[in-house]
Design brief:
Strand content of chain A: 5-15%
Organism (chains A, B): Larkinella humicola
Oligomer: homodimer
GO molecular function (chains A, B): DNA binding
Protein name (chains A, B): Helix-turn-helix transcriptional regulator
Order of helices and strands of chain A: HHEHHEEHH
Largest sheet of chain A: 3 strands, antiparallel
Keywords (chains A, B): DNA-binding, Transcription, Transcription regulation
Strand order of the largest sheet of chain A: 1-3-2
Number of strands of chain A: 3
Number of helices of chain A: 6
CATH topology of one domain in chain A: Arc Repressor Mutant, subunit A
InterPro entries (chains A, B): HTH_HxlR, WH-like_DNA-bd_sf, WH_DNA-bd_sf
Largest interface: A-B, 59 and 59 residues
DNA sequence: CGGAATCCTGCCGGATACTG
DNA sequence: CAGTATCCGGCAGGATTCCG
């Protein structure tokens, strides 16, 4: 009977751990959320700024993603009483707590891309 | 001009970092992948075992998710030449490299759940 | 400028039936 | 046991239009 137990750490406790991971995944899921958070990590942005920087997103999606991020407290929305009305979005302190996760994911993803490339090269070379 | 720069670390580098994060998200996305990985973190499992343990998943989805996980090298699939044929799925060493990510996500998710609960309590209490 | 409303589409994922 | 094939509904997400 082999027990891997995830290296030598505890395995994922099915009931609560897994649910927590799914919660995080749900919050981060959506085609643009990561990108938006990334953009806001550089500083505050207005709606229009995000439209330009995210590039490819539509106003509906941007609005929706922004709302979901705000509901979860990851970003803040501030309406400026200027003339045509401007709105500033900013990453909250709470939103910054995602940094460890995002960093791990970026790290793993880059590593993975290298691995995949190596795998393909090997197959092509030997095939 | 306020630059938050994500605490005092570098912000997410748009081109490569973001793409890497999305790669990771894609690999982990899907309603059952996390759960399957969690199950396999306890040890090897057969198809039928996973059907029972994941609970709620159908054979089509399980098969599909398993294939995707295998393609990415996260799990291994071993056919045993027994009588009615049995297949063993196991988390690979590479799959275990996801542990830091999953752990961070579990941690954050649990923290978040507590925060959300506190927020609701506060609103209910003061409203 | 910053959205909301509407319409339309693909694919994600579920149920069921069939195969080897 | 371990899948595959097929059909089907729902929702994520895109394009367009309209509003304050």
């Amino acid at each position: 009977m082999k027990k891997k137990v995830f290296i030598d750490q505890k395995p994922l406790q099915c009931p609560s751990q897994l649910r927590a991971i799914h919660d995080t995944m749900d919050i981060l899921s959506g085609k643009w959320k990561i990108t938006i958070i990334g953009c806001l990590s550089f500083g505050d942005k207005r709606f229009m700024d995000l439209m330009r920087e995210v590039k490819g997103i539509g106003s509906k999606m941007l609005s929706k993603e922004l709302q979901e991020l705000e509901i979860n407290g990851l970003i803040s929305r501030t309406v400026q009483p200027t003339k045509p009305v401007t709105v500033e979005y900013a990453l909250t302190t709470y939103g910054e707590t995602l940094r460890p996760i995002l960093w791990e994911m970026a790290d793993w993803g880059q590593h993975h891309r290298i691995k995949v490339k190596a795998t393909f090269s090997g197959e092509v070379g030997s095939g």
